[in-house]
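Much of what follows relies on a compact textual record of a protein's fold. Think of the row as the fold of the chain written in a discrete alphabet. An example makes this concrete, so a full record is given next.


***
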Amino acid sequence: MAAADHVCAVRAHSYQNESYLHGFLGSVGDLQKAGVLQDVVLEVEGRRFPCHRLVLSAASPYFSAMFTSDMAESRQKTVVLQGLDAGMFEEILSYIYSGTLHVSLDKVQPLYQAADLLQLDYVTDTCSSYMVMNVECSVTTCVNLYDFADVFSVDIVQKQCQQWIARHFTEVASREEFCSLSVNQLTEIISHDELDVKEETTVWEAVVRWVQHSKEDRLHHLPSILPHIRFNLLTSDKTASILEHPLVRDPGSSEVITNVVQKVNSNLKPRLGMTTEMALLYRGPNELLFMNPREGKYISCSYKPEDLPAVSAMTVTSDNDIYILETKELENEDQVSLFRYNHAKNVWEHESMSSISKYPECYLKCCEEMLFEVDRTLYYLILQDEGPLALLQMRMYNQHTKQWQECSQLQFDRTLYYVATLSCGSHLYFIESDEVHRYDPSQDKWSLRTSPSLTFICTAVAIGTMIFCTDVDFSQTMVYDTESDQWQKLQSWSNPENFDVNVRPSLFVLDNQLHIWLTCTNDDDEEEDHVYVYDRLSDAWTDLKATLPDKEYYVHGRHCPVARMYLPYLKGRKMITSYGCKH
């Protein structure tokens, strides 16, 4: 065929005129302001609002059903709307004709109510977000929003209010607004694990205050409230004191309440405010060290060999569950077992699950096992590395079915000497000097991200949406913003004492601050443990002058796991407390 006769395949295209879309809405708004082509009048609380049926129907399913069905309103020139505030309806109309919504704290609740009735999802969602943003304004605001969210089942606002009240429970419980809570709201709050209280008597005293505010109406609720108080965390003396309280000894309910108090539920967890964040280190195969250098607390726990699993990997979940992964050779095959720490008993319990075999080594022999949690799901990773190839394989543990499921893997055409793997937000990250891979559980897919250009990466931790990592000599520290996919170099440690780092550094996060533990050799050829804390404002590391007991320590994995520990549960174990830490 001659070139002139060649016929091109023509593909159709769709084009969107953005200026037309904005201009169209502006023109509709102008028609409303000018009072042109209006074909219906909406009456709210006696006020009349001329409108366009077409515009209302396009904006709201409520109006669409009203004007396009056989309802009487579809034929009426004037429609009276019930259950709406005229001022809020004016705001709603302004939004419908302009696309702009004005929200303030004094009108967000009636605005939400109006939008909820008229089925305007964007307005209700915007009002919900605005309420969440303003929960922390004051105790009065928080309790007021909590009441509203409870009535209208605005879950996102309810949860935010509960969390804020939990964090400020002592302050909230002392205020008059606390006594206005319903019995359901009260029990929801005092059931919260995150209450920031040092002693459970604080919760009991708050309940007493709530009941006495209207004793005649509320005393009969006490038997249903008391099971949510954690009497298992009280000493026998304090429990006895509660049993002598006038409310408990009230003739009308004494026997019932006494039975509830004495029926202790030993499974109830300690509150957040009663726990101390502790980093976990190993001191030999059967001993753990829990440490918080900032508070000068070091607790050593020894176990019988059969009571502490041989650790292949360890993780602490968002629910403060501590898991150990153990690999043992059974019947000529490596079997993987999962153990969970029972805080109350200070023992490790075997997690009932389907049997799982370790990945066959094939041609890859050097293995590193890892365990992480993402969105309350456990992931078991194993990095097999024998030059010139490397393979990262992964399984997901479904806690409902007790089954392990295969996940996507990563394959490399080179040996990986220094890497770091961790969870951050709703993703897993695999970091090495030349590549960063992010795993998305919702798609079971790995994707490439920006590399850090940091050699010899050995440890990494996450704080919020940021990932911090450092090298084997603690000479370079980098921070990665997972949202912007950008790396930034932090201040390097100058090593003023000329220490040689002879144990791989381990990062950890205590009280939302970055810490690092490392063992160095000084000029006298002696090993010394050091813990540094990082101050982001000054971009500098400070030596906490930690006084760890004189032993060798190590961690499993690329960072020190951190858990919230209730110190009385460790009673009977060897506890070493140091004072005078320099912060």
Q: What stands out?
A: The chain is about 25% helix and 30% strand.
